[in-house]
Amino acid sequence: EVLRCFARDLMRGVSVEVLHRDGSTTSSTIKLDKSAASVSIFDDQQVPVEGLPESVEMSSIRQVCSALETRNVELPNRLFVDDCCACLVLTSGPAITMRFDAPSTQEYFARCFRDIHMAALEPVPIVKPMSQVARPGRATVPPVFSAS
Predict the structure, then answer these.
(1) Which of 27, 32, 46, 97 is deepest in the core (most CB within 10 A)?
(2) CB-based contact 60:69 (threshold 8 Å)
(3) pLDDT at 46 (0 to 100)
């Protein structure tokens, strides 16, 4: 339920502060597209944030890092990263560092976004309808449970 609420909020847009190389921030919104295949980050004027791609495919996100995990990632804005920051490490290009209002908010965002990211990368299993699984004229109850 928590993840479903987070995904719904992310599709509507979540307010974040994008942390730049020089330590300055831009009030921004990160938004998940309806197919959960990409996110976009734009400023208050609905313009992509300077220095960031207009859209980031989930497949191009190598890692989602919480504040603690960012210590293991090389970041150009390392001096300005604190316990309120989370980042999206991309397969190419600079990592996207976001600052939140509290460490707990950052942790919530990182955990939920990581789950959505992993789900977006997993192939969707093909499930056959039960009518195609059961063969007509054959018992669908396993023999162990059949009456003798």
Answers:
(1) 97
(2) no
(3) 85
Give the integer Cα–Cα distance in Å for 65 and 45. Answer: 27
**Does residue 34 have a pLDDT over 60?**
yes
- Find the Cα–Cα–Cα–Cα dihedral 54, 59, 60, 63, rounded to 10°: 120
Q: pLDDT of 76-129, one tens digit each?
A: 898 999 999 999 999 988 899 999 999 999 999 999 999 999 998 886 665 655
CA distance 89 to 95: 4
Q: Return the axis-axis angle of helices 103-121 and 2-12, rounded to nearest 10°.
A: 90
- The pair of structure tokens assigned to 33 is 């597209």
62-66, 77-81, 106-110, 139-143: segment of lowest average pLDDT: 139-143
